[in-house]
Predict the structure of Inositol 2-dehydrogenase.
Amino acid sequence: MTQQGTLGVAVIGTGRMGADHVRRIDEVISGARVAAVVDIDAERVKSVADRIEGCAAYTDPAAAMAAAEVDAVLVASPGPAHEAALLEAFRHDLPVLCEKPLTPDAASALRVLEAEQRLGHRRVQVGFMRRYDPEFARLKELLDSGELGRPLLLHCRHRNASVPSFFTEPMLVNDSVVHEMDQSRWLLGQEITAVRVLRPRPSAHAPAGIGDPQLVIFETDGGVLVDVEIFANCGFGYQVQAEAVCERGTARIGESHQMLVNRAGGWGGEIAQDFVARFREAYDRQVQAWVDATRRGEVQGPSAWDGYAAAAVCEAGVRAQATGERVTVELAERPALYR
Ligand SMILES: NC(=O)c1ccc[n+]([C@@H]2O[C@H](COP(=O)([O-])OP(=O)(O)OC[C@H]3O[C@@H](n4cnc5c(N)ncnc54)[C@H](O)[C@@H]3O)[C@@H](O)[C@H]2O)c1
Ligand SMILES: O[C@H]1[C@H](O)[C@@H](O)[C@H](O)[C@@H](O)[C@H]1O
């Protein structure tokens, strides 16, 4: 850290999310600067570094993490590259904000948990940014207050306008519904114990090999049922909505977080077209909270345990999707570090 306490961050992966986080650290939030950027694509990383004063470009994450200017790491490479980056960050005892997923499967997530426990202190915050969205935060506050009584059901909708051509059917669960896994565990303070996947007839616009939309149902250890509509190619925009049904009332978010306009012959608002627009404020608040906590020497937010738990539910979800059966979630015992 500089004398003023400014955190030098290395951003690993400068694709869509990484480049947006670089812009966020450089232009939006306070207390940090982009000290290094890393990408296996040498041209891309150089063009990102060239736009920022004092920012070094690397193609090797380990070299960036060894640099004296780097105090913390933001991992935004693809999921399969996360484990290696996290283990390297632990070698230097660096704090990490790791984009979801922590890792792509439960076994590798457990290895990360074990390595963090060997350090003896938490180092990782996982990028489940919905926890920082003002609407989700208000819903959490209301549920925690107990005013509506105990939650019984959680109805969730997750619609993408479209998904890239490399998207596969398991990614409906691993890449998209993983957010509802974390959101449900966090909102309810409960673990997910079983998953089922139901399919309507596929949309005519579903890409080959993907049954789209699907209904993913979670059971929790507190007896709540959660249903998630995942519709990856709905065509009209990006929508994330949730409604909690409790004993004495219901609460719904995500209907219209923007302006509502009356105009000739019509009433309504705009629909965001992607997650970058819909969750802009959540991403800003997430990164600011990470920087602030790191500068205080603390680690907060979704932990490696939360990343592991989501990975375990993903595995059950992908099996439920493939077999049509109810699949129970196998969860390791929660280590003391994460209690
Ligand atoms: N929180 C969210 O809402 C959200 C949204 C989108 C993506 N994500 C997550 O962010 C991460 C990145 O996604 P993206 O959409 O930006 O992907 P992307 O493909 O646009 O970018 C990934 C970048 O990482 C680089 N890269 C690949 N392997 C690398 C390695 N070993 N070391 C360094 N760089 C490497 C690639 O060259 C590319 O530039 C993923 O984990 C993804 O799941 C999160
Ligand atoms: O990778 C993205 C991202 O995680 C978004 O937040 C999610 O809404 C999309 O469905 C997913 O494809």
Notes: Residues 12-18, 38-41, 44, 61, 76-79, 81, 99-100, 127, 129, 275 surround nicotinamide-adenine-dinucleotide (ligand 1) (CB under 6 Å). The first strand starts at residue 7 and ends at 12. The chain has two domains: 7-129+281-302, 131-275+310-338. The chain has a mean pLDDT of 96.
